[in-house]
């Protein structure tokens, strides 16, 4: 603006100067010369008018451009308005403007694109465009992260097909509930997973016409936005059978009626047996094409214990607890079967003994401990006592994340149970329960958690391996405790062992809470790595 004002002032100065010189010259000119001078003056005035008109047009264009730029977010780092606090967990955001990448490390996107943000520590965020399947830096004030402000963002989960099925089949999810998720196929941006009737989930590809900027499930019906597509299929079926009701909530309300958790046995197929105990057996099974774990009662006497476990599991909803899908009665013997998500890598104890488990770095072992304590913080909050917390009762997902399982002191872990003393978890049990036979509490779970930490950091070594269960009982009674994993040649930071020791205080009330333990573990991770980054976590959704 300053340059334009100076330029116009500059031209005005020379026009005035020209007029003064012209007046002095007019006194010396004859008639023909005067006529010629007048013609030149007219031409000059015409040129000046044209220039002035050009400058006015230019000024109007610049003013319009300035107005448009004021409506758009400012990309200048000098006047940058930082819209969100930094976070380190991957998170989905929605583009509210088009953005064209100008640098090689930037990521282009168009309005309504979904992006997975992995780092917000700088002004420009590191993100992946789900539709375009490209990664780079994006301006953070061009995107929206509030789920409540967008039905599209609220429906999106960064999960694969199997995880979408688990999320849509948990008790409390109704027919027509849907999830929008990334599609693994190169030229297809999204997949739409919808809860169908019975125990079934249907999956649809969401196509995108780049030239027309339109989404569609079938070529006959196209939509300018995903929101428009969702709205249409709320009133119309997709395939003649299923339509859309509402996005799958990130926190499902647990049904109070156990009857809503019962699965028709006809939908369930049992495959290989994975383990067997005195009271039940564990199988790998399927509901449709979805793999599940099935725990089957073996006698009428164990049915009651299984039903109690169902009552506990159906109220649990946390990302670090094995997902309960329902229960059913076998035919024709009417035994109870508990159906949960299938964890491909089996128990944590077995996994730590395998080559892939023994290759885990110290940081990953601490991450496992961190994941387990997050589950226990949740149980502590809702006043549920696990009573049998140990590595054998923690399961490992195919992505190597872990979840707590086996509620209700079950004896179905696939381990040798021929010795009654060894079958009872003496090595993990707090002294008030083991010796004084008091009722287990969250504080006795804290004791067991300290033993589990020892198991993890020693790659599945048996606690007090040099002693029998009866000797362990005597050791605990006289106040002996496990030594640091360092004594067995494994890494264990002093502050981590201090956490373990605090879990083994003889007086339950002096043991830390799981929340306090969680905070200390987070602090240890932050101290070693500079930041606490729970990459396995996604808003603790169920």
Automatic annotation (TrEMBL):
Span list, region Disordered: 21-81
Any one GO biological process: neuron differentiation
Enzyme Commission number(s) of this protein: 2.7.10.2
Biased composition (Low complexity): 33-49, 57-71
Key words, A-Z: ATP-binding, Kinase, Membrane, Nucleotide-binding, SH2 domain, SH3 domain, Transferase, Tyrosine-protein kinase
Recorded GO MF terms: ATP binding; non-membrane spanning protein tyrosine kinase activity
Gene Ontology CC terms, in alphabetical order: endomembrane system
Chemical reaction(s) catalysed: L-tyrosyl-[protein] + ATP = O-phospho-L-tyrosyl-[protein] + ADP + H(+)
SH3 domain boundaries: 88-148
Family annotation (SUPFAM superfamilies): beta-sandwich domain of Sec23/24 (SSF81995), Protein kinase-like (PK-like) (SSF56112), SH2 domain (SSF55550), SH3-domain (SSF50044)
PROSITE patterns the UniProt entry points to: PROTEIN_KINASE_ATP (PS00107), PROTEIN_KINASE_DOM (PS50011), PROTEIN_KINASE_TYR (PS00109), SH2 (PS50001), SH3 (PS50002)
Domain Protein kinase: residue ranges: 268-525
Similarity comment: family membership: Belongs to the protein kinase superfamily. Tyr protein kinase family.
Name of protein: Tyrosine-protein kinase
Originating organism: Echinococcus granulosus
């Amino acid at each position: 603006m300053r340059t334009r004002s100076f330029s116009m002032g500059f031209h005005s100065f020379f026009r005035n100067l020209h007029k003064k010189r012209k007046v002095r010259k007019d006194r010396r000119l004859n008639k023909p010369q005067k006529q010629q001078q007048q013609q030149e003056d007219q031409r000059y005035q015409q040129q000046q008018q044209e220039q002035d008109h050009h400058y006015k047009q230019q000024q109007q264009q610049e003013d319009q451009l300035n107005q448009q730029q004021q409506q758009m977010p400012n990309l200048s780092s000098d006047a940058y308005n930082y819209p969100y606090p930094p976070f380190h967990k991957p998170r989905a955001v929605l583009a509210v403007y088009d953005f064209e990448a100008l640098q090689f490390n930037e990521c282009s996107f168009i309005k309504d694109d979904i992006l997975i943000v992995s780092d917000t520590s700088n002004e420009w965020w590191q993100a992946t465009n789900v539709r375009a399947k490209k990664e780079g830096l994006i301006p953070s004030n061009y995107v929206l992260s509030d789920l409540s402000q967008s039905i599209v963002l609220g429906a999106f989960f960064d999960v694969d097909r199997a995880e979408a099925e688990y999320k849509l089949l948990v008790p409390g999810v109704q027919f027509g509930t849907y999830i929008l998720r990334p599609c693994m196929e190169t030229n297809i941006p999204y997949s739409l997973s919808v809860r169908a009737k019975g125990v079934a989930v249907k999956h649809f590809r969401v196509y995108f016409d780049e030239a027309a900027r339109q989404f569609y499930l079938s070529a006959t019906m196209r939509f300018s936005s995903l929101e428009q597509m969702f709205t249409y299929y709320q009133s119309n079926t997709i395939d003649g059978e299923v339509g859309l009701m509402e996005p799958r909530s990130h926190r499902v309300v647990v049904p109070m009626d156990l009857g809503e958790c019962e699965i028709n046995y006809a939908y369930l197929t049992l495959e290989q047996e994975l383990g067997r105990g005195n009271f039940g057996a564990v199988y790998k099974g399927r509901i449709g094409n979805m793999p599940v774990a099935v725990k089957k009662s073996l006698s009428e006497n164990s049915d009651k214990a299984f039903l109690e476990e169902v009552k506990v599991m159906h109220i649990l909803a946390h990302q670090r607890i094995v997902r309960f899908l329902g229960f059913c009665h076998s035919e024709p013997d009417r035994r109870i079967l508990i159906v949960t998500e299938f964890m491909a890598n089996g128990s944590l104890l077995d996994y730590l003994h395998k080559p892939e488990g023994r290759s885990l770095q110290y940081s990953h072992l601490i991450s496992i401990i961190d994941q387990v304590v997050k589950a226990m913080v949740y149980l502590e909050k809702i006043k549920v006592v696990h009573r049998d917390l140990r590595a054998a009762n923690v399961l490992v997902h195919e992505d190597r994340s872990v979840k707590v399982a086996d509620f209700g002191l079950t004896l179905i872990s696939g381990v040798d149970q021929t010795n009654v003393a060894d079958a009872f978890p003496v090595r993990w049990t707090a002294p008030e329960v083991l010796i004084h036979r008091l009722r287990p509490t969250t504080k006795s779970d804290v004791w067991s958690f300290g033993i589990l930490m020892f198991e993890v950091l020693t790659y599945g070594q048996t606690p007090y391996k040099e002693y029998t269960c009866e000797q362990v009982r005597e050791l605990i009674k006289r106040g002996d405790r496990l030594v640091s994993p360092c004594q067995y040649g494994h890494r264990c930071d002093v502050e981590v062992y201090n956490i373990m020791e605090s879990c083994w205080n003889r007086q339950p009330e002096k043991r830390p809470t799981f929340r306090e333990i969680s905070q200390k573990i987070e602090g240890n991770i932050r101290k070693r790595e500079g930041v606490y980054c729970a990459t396995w976590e996604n808003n603790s959704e169920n």
